[in-house]
Amino acid sequence: MNHMTQPDSHSAVRLTKQKDWWRGAVIYQIYPRSFQDSNGDGIGDLNGITDRLDYVAGLGVDAIWLSPFFTSPMKDFGYDVANYRGVDPIFGTLEDFDKLLAKAHRLDLKVMIDQVISHTSDEHEWFKQSRISPDNPKSDWYVWADAKPDGTPPNNWLSIFGGSAWTWDPRRCQYYLHNFLTSQPDLNFHNANVTAALLEEVRFWLDRGVDGFRLDTVNFYVHNQSLADNPALPKDQINATIAPAVNPYNWQDHINDKSRPENIDFLKRLRALLDEYDHITTVGEIGDAQRQLDIMAAYTSGGDKLHMAYTFDFLGGDFNAKYFALKIKELEAILTDGWPCWAFSNHDVQRHISRWGIAPDRQSDFAKLSAEVLLSLRGSVCLYQGEELALPEAEVAFEDLVDPYGIEFWPNYKGRDGCRTPMVWEVDGGQAGFTTANRTWLPIPVEHQSHAVDAQGDGSVLKHYQEFLTFRRATSALREGDIKIIDATEQVLAFERQLGEERILCVFNMSDQPATIELAAFEDFDHAARHSNATLEGTRLSLPSFSSYFGVNAS
To answer: Please, what is the end-to-end C-alpha distance for the chain in angstroms?
Structure first.
């Protein structure tokens, strides 16, 4: 199999291995099932990832984030962990992981792994013991509660995957809590033995040499021990930021089942463990439709909890200048000394080219512009595999669905399979160079194959990502500088990034029509560092559709 690599633009201006390497870092998310299959079973694996690491390094990113590869029954495709220290056989072995880690480090890539500690699989040994009886040694390692007198669940809490968040267990004759699938019981973070055990699971991977963790559902760890009902949300406050609009989960204000203030204490204990090691970082996933920016600020401030976190503000919302300006201003007003991490796509949401409704004939231009916007925001950045190829969301037929979330809410919500289909490496290769198998775990769309890596020549979206990542790396103000909104019209977003004496003005036409903007700020910048056929006359800038302009200060 020809594992094509791209020119290594990453070697030019490496981030040093200082403690704060993660500030302004670009992290490339790999979904292991869909990156590269090395053994011909139609499912991606660790050795396949290792084979493709030269490509990833050639993009110019600083780190990779691996979605779960742990031992699991795969009911939620690895986010249901049965053994935190084991590699599931479909992905390989611990030795395979060690080889991946070693090669990544030789390529100067940091390696971050998912930690899914809010819940386990119901096949985890801890839960098998916990469910035996109410008086066994691990009886309260999970969240158990008696039924109401009429036999119904203890309260009104809902699962994000549909239905009640409580499932009856006939062994204990009690209900157990699960914020997700019934096969994903929630751990009891009020039990000191549980949190101590989880920290030891984290230590296992630290000792193995990983560079950091992406923390799944980090605001779901702690529940209100009183088990009080969640209040209903006023209808005008309901939004579908976290769950699809067809899910009544959106109708509650989730003040008791997640986002509890008690979570701060655990995050401090986690950070104390991480600080025993060199150069470790964390990025937390925050899912809360009502107060996610407040939670991001609380979890990342003070230097004693998470290093950074991301919300769903730009994993949903609108791609327009005024929305982006509003969210940036809101964040800057509240974040103080915290640090954000941004993404437009990941394994849980529709790919952003499709989500933002871009016509097929404009997707290449949009992909280039959206990359520039994302990589110019203050904070660190997560790129999702395939976005550098401008992959649109795949249309997956109902009979091919495997995601339980999509199966539950079909057809109004089609789930997450459309963003998880295999990477396309070869335009003319069988199964796009992903596997030698006749069948892949999710089908590869025919329309994706023309986006393959080996078809991305000069002027392509892939080349644009590589070039802009090189530009970002050489521009300190873009990596770590402050941000100040200059203006936002219906079409154009303008902001300034500054670090010390280095200043750069970033202007984006986020619409599919030409636009102009008049800014006195242009007088402070003496030349363009980059532009996409933009024309500047005095203080008036004319921008083609989906284009940008970057001005550098005279000093």
So the answer is: 51
Residues 352 and 233 in one domain: yes
Domain with 30 in it: 9-118+192-473
From 135, 150, 207, 276, active-site residue: 276
Model confidence, pTM = 0.95
Other CB atoms within 10 A of residue 537 CB = 9
Judge if 502 and 353 occupy the same domain. no
Please say if 332 is a catalytic residue. no
Q: What is the pLDDT of residues 496-553, one digit of tens each?
A: 999 999 999 999 999 999 999 999 988 888 778 887 789 999 999 999 999 999 998 7
- Nearest-5° Cα angle at 319, 338 to 529: 75
Residues 450 and 505 in one domain: no
CATH of residue 523's domain is 2.60.40.1180
Q: What is the pLDDT of residues 4-25, one digit of tens each?
A: 333 333 333 334 457 899 999 9
The domain tally of the chain equals 2
What does the alpha-carbon distance between residue 128 and residue 136 come to, in Å, rounded to a whole number? 11
* 197 in the same domain as 82: yes
Choice among 169, 216, 387, 393 that is catalytic: 216
Q: How far apart are CA 59 and CA 25, in angstroms?
A: 13
278 as an active site residue: the answer is: no
What b-and-e string marks burial along 334-353, b requiring 16 or more CB atoms within 10 Å of the CB? ebeebbbbbbbbbbbbbbbb
Give the domain-ending residue among 473, 506, 524.
Answer: 473
